[in-house]
Design brief:
Layout lengths: L7 H6 L7 E4 L3 E5 L9 E5 L14 H17 L19
Antiparallel strand pairs: 1-2, 2-3
């Protein structure tokens, strides 16, 4: 994916679109979904544009690991003590 590709997520990262941000660091941003499909529905995105998991490269390994550990942290901070679900939508058949 091109670094210059505009998405709703890049606009949220730049604060051009408002979002209820619950976590942010240098690599990732997490915010509440405006149309939640669960009682707690938080979207976690990398700040580096990666269109889908299919587009990830081997050099993205540290970032992808960081995202999973960040999902754990965000879930803990949201008080999800009994478990949580992590979903990655990829492509048309994956719901993205």
């Amino acid at each position: 994916m091109s670094e210059n590709t505009e998405t709703i997520f890049s606009k949220i990262i730049r604060r051009e679109i408002p979002a209820d941000i619950v976590y942010e660091d240098d690599l990732a941003l997490a915010f509440k979904d405006i149309h939640p499909q669960a009682p707690v529905h938080i979207i976690l995105i990398p700040k580096k544009p990666i269109a889908t998991l299919t587009d990830a490269e081997s050099h993205d390994h540290p970032l992808l690991g960081h995202l999973l550990l960040t999902a754990k942290r965000v879930a803990q901070e949201a008080g999800l003590k009994n478990g949580y679900r992590v979903v990655i939508n990829t492509g048309d058949d994956g719901g993205s």
